[in-house]
Batch of 2 targets.
Target 1
Amino acid sequence: MSKVHNSRRNFLKTIGIASGGLIIGINVNARSVTKHHAYSKNGIVPNVWISLDKSGQATLVVHRSEMGQGIRTSLAAVLADEMGADLAHVTIQQATGDEKYGNQNTDGSRSVRNFLTILRKAGASVRALLCNAAAKKIGVDKQTCYADGHYVHHRPTGKKIFFGDLVEEAKLLDLPEDAPLKSSSEFKYMGTEIDNLDSDLLISGRAIYGIDSQIEGMVYASLKRTPVIGGKVKSIDKQKTLAFPGVIDVVEIKGTAGAALFNPLASVAVIATNTWAAEQGKKLLEIEWDNQGNDNKDYDSIAYQKKLEGSVQKKGEQHRNEGDVYAVFDGVEKEHDSSGQTVEALYYAPHLAHAPMETPAALAWVQEDRCDVWTCVQTPQNAQSLVAKELGLDKSSVVINVTFLGGGFGRKSKPDYVVEAAKLSKILNKPVKVFWSREDEIQNGYFHSASAQYHKAVIDKNNQVTAWLHRSDFPPIAATFNPQARGPGGGVGQAATTMPYDIPNVRVEAGDAKAHVRIGWLRSVYSIFHGFSVNSFVDELAHHRKMDPLEHQLSLIGKDRRLFDDDGAAEYKFDTDRLKTVLKKAANNANWGKKLPKGHGMGLAVQYSFFSYVAQVIEVSVIDNRLKIHEIHSVIDCGQVVNKDAVMNQMEGAAIFGLSLSLYGDITAKKGQIQQSNFHDYQMLRMHQAPKIHVEILTSDHPATGVGEPGVPPIAPALTNAVFAATGKRYRQLPLSKHGLI
Amino acid sequence: MNRVSFHSIGKQIMIKLNVNNKKYEVDVPDDMPLLWVLRDIVNLTGTKYGCGIGQCGACTVHIDGSPTRSCLYPVGSVKSAAITTIEGLAKGDDFHPVQKAWKKLNVAQCGYCQSGQIMSAVALLKNKPSPSDDDIDNAMSGNICRCGTYTRIRKAIKLAVQESNHE
């Protein structure tokens, strides 16, 4: 524990422990519980913190960011369940950004996946400790004791002791190692529908988000950032701005050359006494931008789309190859299609912006030799490192307080806004809250890649698919870190090379698109467009084979087997039986094949992503060229489930998120600048368009896998497949609003 | 002080506000949107900023019971009207029936839009105690939820109606 923390802020107070309580720190980095229960004992730094005070109040520190996925409740429930605690006596404390907590990067749908077993082991150790304490207190054999409902019970006599009354005893005992985990039949919370522990805060206006952060003496900052990536400030006329009531100062921030990383863009910050004055002041700035030699200034989405589409119609870099697709294509061509038919299709999907309801925000307070930050961030340790580097401080002097996040979707794992706040606070020598307007968020984001996908397949004279070629091109996220990065590269591993179909000749190639905007992870990332084109093309093949799309997908996936056995983490394997099962269940739940009213159609899609399996069936109608989405049936297999209710919420939400991007998502550039600016021209699905959504969760003993993102990718293709079923028209370009359907 | 001519600036005045049955006196330009007076001056941050152009509903408050997008409502226009924000719905620790329904069904995911959603729903039910699905659509379509909680919001509104019918 650093000296700064001890002298400036009592760490024990930050986890809300009344003096005299029991504090248990456990190190779970090594995937095992190490034996100590005073935090500095044996020099081991703990990263799971559980405290228990004499009133019985248990405080559990949650180290992952809360952005609506309910992770605070889920992780607390895991600990509480194994501890034998009652959630009614549990308080959650959000961890600050600190490597002692282990990995805090809340992205990639991996919080439960990575921490379920570890937290179970920690909870089990505490349970064993409390049982030992009770046994000692009563003077019985510890084997006769068990913990449940915040009490330790002595089985033979029925005597029970409340956790709070065991604190003194427990403090004197060692933390047991290798305490046995509960069997799933003993679970009290895990696997059930757990009520969100933060509900009261979220529905009362009392939850504090990054954008709500306040501190005495703070000022507000609104930044006008370069509209073209790579642009610089040439001149600023700040006269009118400074004259605006409430405006205190105007500060220029220089951009950084080379990779965008999470550096602040070249910008001009208006500092004011309140948000509105800062925003009004910003509108009055007159800035001349310098884009000499910056080819991003010519970035035009219409031209870029043509470029991407051209690129995928040429041979690219090989990423998967079995058999020889080109020989098969040549063969069919030579025989003038008598040996089979060739099917090809070109798909396009544009850039997307994250648009979380809470725009990025950070309050930073730089003092002599420390910096305190309050912010909505998915990656608090990265934010800590960046701020430390920016200020020339040691990391231990930077405290990142993680607030609730009003949505993330990946935007808040890029802490450029945190660095902006720290920079400005240092310059101004007071606390500074950086505010991003919706226009800022949409125009200066880290966008999801625009992409083109080309598919070509052969169906032989026996109606078998014998060759599958998939070419993908898009500007990669890698370009944000390395300006030389071009094209998908290994990104084709997300749902392109990992297509599950049993086809003898397979080839996947990648192009070399250059990025002209900052590119970033957006909920389910490359699986969005790869999932779209793969599931759409598979549907096209079904119709060419004159087969029902469900039968066709199942037959293409083929027999039960394990795919890519040498790929990925050992415990998360891609099993085709699980893929087929979710598809069959979704189809069954949707009554696939039932007679539909005129103008209606059903479409399906199935996708493996973040190690989970999701299938969706969507029913639409297109009447008088107006699209209406009626019903979605989703099935997810994500292995072991902690909070069933949170999983359902994520699947319902992912469906809406997927519909928004399919119907409306379209970020375009002209002369290097983003053309959209707010919800009037970057639209979102609204209540009146929301379909009925049915979710089935397949529970199993498989290791817990991703939940936050996997619900998104199958939505777009299931939707366009449904539209095809309803109209006979195939839409290969997103969003559907482009085609006048909505 | 130089006044800029092309951009209209409000008159800086002392305004008396009635927010959640409490009196506040604020010294602000009269064209400052009520949203920012609430958040930055009165320090009630339960009402949220989502877009600033009345498109998302996150800023919804009640002005004399009427649901209003406070990001577009100049504070100078409030006058003596009673402002109710999300913080004023509950009576002490006793949540409003709509909030109770929200809690029962775990409606909130990230929760950021829910202040606005709840304020819109409360206004709807005051106006139409037994709303149809179309009524719900009309009243609630101005509130965007990026987490996608629409299905649960609809269920919660219906639950709140049900619960009130049992009282």
Target 2
Amino acid sequence: MGLADCATEVADSEGACGLAPTPSRRVTVTDLGWVERVESALVDIDVLSLDIFDTALTRTLESPVDVFALTEARLVQLLGDEARGYAKSREDAERAARAAEVRVEDVRFDAIIDRLVTHKPELARHRKLIGEEEIRAEELVLRATPDVLAAYRRARELGCRIIFVSDMYHSTETLAKWLRKHGYDHWDELLVSGDIGLTKARGTIWSHIQDRIGPLDRILHIGDDSWSDEERPRQAGVNVLPYVAVRSERRFGAKLTPALLAHSFASRAEVIHPRPGGETKPAARHFFYGLGASFGSVVVGGFIRWLEQRAKALDVKHLYFCSRDGWLSHAAWLAAGLDRSGPSSSYLHISRQTLNLSAGYAESRNGRLSEELLSFLSGSWSAAPLATILGRCGLDGIDSIVASAKDEIGPLEAPLSRAEDVEKLKLILFRESRAVLDLLGPVHEATLAYLRQEGLSEDEHRALVDAGWHGSLQASIRQLMQSQGLRPRLSGFYYGLWPAARGRRLATGWMEGFVGSDYRTLSEQSGLHGVVDILEELFAAPHGTVVGYESGKGAAWSAVLSNRSEEMRQHDQAVVYFQQGVIETLREVFANGRSDCLRVENLTRDAAMAAIEQLGMAPTSLEIQHVGNLQHAADFDHSCFRPLLHLDERLALPEVADRISHSPWPAAIAKAIYQRSNPEDRPKVREAVLSRLAYLGERRLRSFH
Amino acid sequence: MLDQGEKAPLMLYESSREHRVEVGGKGAAEIVSIITRTKDRPVLLPRALASVLSQEFTDWHLYLVNDGGDRAVVEAILADYEAAFSGRITVIHNADGLGMEAASNAGLSLARGDYFTIHDDDDSWHPEFLARTVELLRSPANAGYVGVCTNCHIVNERIVGDRVIEDSLSTWGYFQRHIDMRNLLVRNSMPPITVLFRRSLLKDVAGFNPSLPVLGDWEFSLRALTLGDIAVIDEPLAYYHHRQPAAGAQYGNSVSHGVDRHQKFDVLLRNSAIRHALRADPSLVGILQPILHAVDELSGRVSELQQQNGRLMEALSERQSQVGDSRRRGEAGSYRRVLSYDEMRDLAKEVWWERNRRTLLYKLMRVVKAWLRK
């Protein structure tokens, strides 16, 4: 069998690369209001002009360039490793071809492939196959848009002439084939920029159309691009009716490799196959469900698959999913049925508060608080009021501490933000070490009793499962156990670990990260770093933080929870829908081996990383709007909630760079600020963005150019 | 001492001391043999073990040489890692410390991989280190290279209790994009954590020189380079960890903690190499002497010019502050008015010298070489 035959076979077998969605599934998104508007507009015009991509046809992939990644996946199957890196080379080749083309306004597919094989000569002998495979990849993912197809048919009924106008490098012949395949079987003109050398983007194509078709004011143009399909034709005197229901938002967060396809298909499905009630502008609940079914499923699904493999490889007998960030992973683990094939599991109620207080108590010597415990008791990421800092661990119940704090630091309501005030508080607590240790003694005893009850003191190999990032939870538990003369075989599995974690590996024992490693620099992990606060909110349990443990006479120990109303409200309004999206999707994927657009074998570490990088470094406008509204608490007591993004204020230019630097989600705040800035301020905003986010690289910053 | 017993300075060591292999087993295919030397550094060792275990390339075997350190401590740490190693570790407990290079040889004597590398117990790798270096050496196009080194990050750190606190991260200042024998003879630009060698080269250069308490890796690299070139990957795929002397003898780096010892053995090693060369060919003195004399003269001249430059910069700085003062006082002073003609001339000379110094020195060297050829 030759390569071309093989390619045909691959193309014809559904998902031969393991990534294609169900070919027969049609686009279902519809905007009834728009269809009505177009029907009335058709009455007054002679010609209906239709844009092709993301208007008459759309792709089941999130971003147009993702087709190159699909092509690479298919080429690797056919050609092996020499095709790896194709997608990136293909993208670069198109940019180079465009830059080199000076005679006409657009390039042709042949010119792009010429450029590609010049840069990647090892592929030169496969030139024909590459061209065919890219066209096949497009065919696999192209679908008709029902609203536009309906408008087209109505226009035909009314006797309007039809023209298709596209800024595209593929040939007129290729586009004609695709249009016919999807139900557009007649037109008066099909104008493709690659062939005629004129574009919608520059507006030059409209005079050409006037010459061939007639007066522009008798034409109604429908398209998705705000510049090429709205602004430019309007300037030329064409009637315009935008269609944005299937508009793609280009994102360049993930590397352009086949790993991004799982997330790309899943995310796109949320746009073109909306769930009931979640039409073109989904409300928060629909948005978060969709985010869970796409981003969440790829990330959490990849994690639990990896977890199962690693736990088996290390012969781990039991997994403890830790509160609160491990809650969703545990729910997904159970929904996927992995507790039947993998190690046993349970949910462990622990928190930084109980563990650090207990471990700090255990390591305090001679009736004096340890330095680490003092830092923990007095520290705050959010400059919380003094009263909050004292109250969160019950220190406000020690009169002498409260009195000294008032005298030496100031009013209890004032935020504890100055370094010297924190040092003063440490000194006060150190003076009162005995009283503080008396307070913490029962917490220490109860925590130990709970951990023993849950089996943490057992000899067999067990592991903690949590979001990550410093290994402090694992170190504290081992420290507590060791203070009792025990040496449990306790490992840890996390979504990610930061470099600081590698410095405490003596205390933690073995631990490993899924998508983040303590042996990679923070800047290398900026995608993951940008979504940490998001993951912590979306993965969190539907209960508050653990503040202690209680037990009736002879009864089991159980956690005492601090259920804060802000947290619970956020959970009910947003987080619960995200988690439902994840759990229901993964239940289906693991039960059947696949869902509409995800296959279990595609839930990999690379796919999860790609999803994280897309959200972290190239969020869409909808993601910025909804996810940016989530509130996050940085302190261990979850007392101060702040929105992930401050979107509602217009920033002065000098503040822009500072705001980006200090944001937990820098790419999102940069995009939000840029989009909201006045046109005259944009160059300076762009300059600030590019300087602060230079580490993201040129490709990821293209949306600011 | 380096030349004790009339040994040639680069003579290869052959260990006659026994070592005991206490724990071991073969797991996956051993493509890379990793040698880690440790002695009583429990805070650092787990980080090094996890660095190896975090490699994306997994066909390796670790030879951990506990060179006279507390055996129970090492075993307690390894208990946490046993499952993760899955048989890919052999532990060698030396009852007494043999020294760093002899410890390396003890590990190498058991190695079976196509490649080997020294991963010290205080350093660490990026997860892609082995994948990238092995890929490079495996490529037929790179068959001529005897090894490969990468760029690295320098991590400045300190030890607090049972933790290592990393204070700063910077790039390796001595990194060379090409491993040039001439540069490597002057300075070691390849920390061991950045290098992977073909094991086949051991047939010709044998192991590390055990008579060197420090700089053994440098000396080994020089010998390796006599067999072939070392390829370079210009990406920081390793971490070279530095701790200040305050860390104490147990946790100090061989570099930052033993500066004096480094300097001493640096000199001894150079003396030894020259001595070896002169014994083999005494006529080299006739070439070396005039070259070194010319270089010495040039060094003296450069030193004089540097001092002159320093004085001029001071004068310039003083003048600039005078201009600033006069402007603040509202005087119509300017840079040109403040500098005298002579000062301007000196300044121009200085600028010219700064721009042309390299060229002049290079020309001078050519003259010396031409003279020597005559």
